[in-house]
């Protein structure tokens, strides 16, 4: 009888462990919300050099590898259509089979799910980076605004870590405000229609910029300060700019 009791107890433990994980939605996110959110905005309004493209791919790999199990990652492409960045990926990291328990799960099946639904689609995005073509405008602020409302404002994500990475030359260029005309001048921006038009609730969002350098960027030496001010004025946490290798 003692042996039977131990067997039943052991089975109960295995059953509990096998069913202890969260229920996943079709996007592989837990039904009670992702544990974190990382959104990446890739500026494809202009082409970039091969060396910059390579550096960007390496940074993208680091971003993806930093998304923990049940963390959500979304990838957007900035186009010249204002407030309409193209979302090319949305999904949570379901975890690979490396740390799964063979007694309570199927590591091979878990690894296959991770490859097909998470790793491979992101690899395809990585391979296509930097394929931009000249565009009429570069609505970076509008793109960020749309992502924040679309990706970070879901009630399920309240209190969860939120990260935004923008890979761009950071040259805002719209009818409301253009750095090609005024430079990275905060005072000009504050007096422009763009100030209120692109006001964005960045509360609780960590913002990092991956900066594509232009050959004539010497005249835009205030660019990092401009964006740091814009992020902080919208109550975001600015974690800095990283200049990518090469020039446009």
Structural domain tally:
1
Radius of gyration from the alpha-carbon trace, in angstroms: 22 Å
CATH class: Alpha Beta
Quantity of strands, as a count: 6
Number of helices: 8
User: Approximately what portion of the residues adopt beta-strand conformation?
Assistant: 15-25%
Q: Terminal Cα separation, in Å?
A: 76 Å
CATH H-level superfamily: von Willebrand factor, type A domain
**CATH arch. level architecture:** 3-Layer(aba) Sandwich
- Can you list the strand order of the major beta sheet? 3-2-1-4-5-6
| Envelope shape | globular
Q: Which blocks of ≥5 consecutive residues have pLDDT under 50?
A: 1-20
Q: Biggest sheet, in brief?
A: 6 strands, mixed
Order of SSEs? HEHEEHHEHHHEHE
The helix fraction, in percent, is 25-40%
**The CATH topology:** Rossmann fold
Structural class by helix and strand composition: alpha/beta
């Amino acid at each position: 009888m003692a042996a039977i009791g131990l067997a039943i107890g052991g089975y109960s433990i295995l059953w509990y462990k096998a069913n202890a994980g969260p229920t996943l939605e079709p996007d592989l996110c837990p039904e009670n919300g992702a544990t974190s959110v990382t959104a990446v905005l890739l500026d494809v309004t202009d082409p970039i050099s091969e060396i910059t493209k390579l550096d960007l791919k390496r940074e993208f790999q680091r971003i993806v590898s930093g998304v923990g199990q049940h963390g959500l990652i979304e990838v957007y492409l900035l186009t010249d259509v204002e407030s309409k960045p193209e979302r090319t990926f949305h999904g949570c990291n379901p975890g690979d089979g490396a740390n799964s328990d063979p007694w309570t799960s199927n590591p091979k099946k878990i690894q296959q799910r991770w490859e097909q639904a998470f790793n491979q689609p992101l690899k395809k995005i990585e391979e296509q980076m930097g394929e931009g073509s000249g565009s009429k405008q570069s609505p970076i602020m509008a793109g960020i605004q749309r992502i924040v409302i679309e990706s970070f404002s879901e009630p399920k994500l309240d209190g969860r870590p939120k990260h935004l990475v923008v890979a761009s030359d950071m040259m805002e260029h719209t009818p409301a405000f253009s750095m090609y005309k005024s430079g990275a001048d905060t005072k000009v921006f504050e007096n422009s229609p763009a100030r209120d038009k692109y006001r964005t609730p960045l509360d609780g969002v960590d913002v990092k910029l991956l900066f594509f350098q232009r050959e004539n960027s010497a005249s835009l030496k205030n660019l990092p300060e401009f964006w740091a001010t814009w992020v902080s004025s919208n109550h975001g946490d600015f974690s800095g700019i990283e200049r990518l290798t090469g020039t446009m």
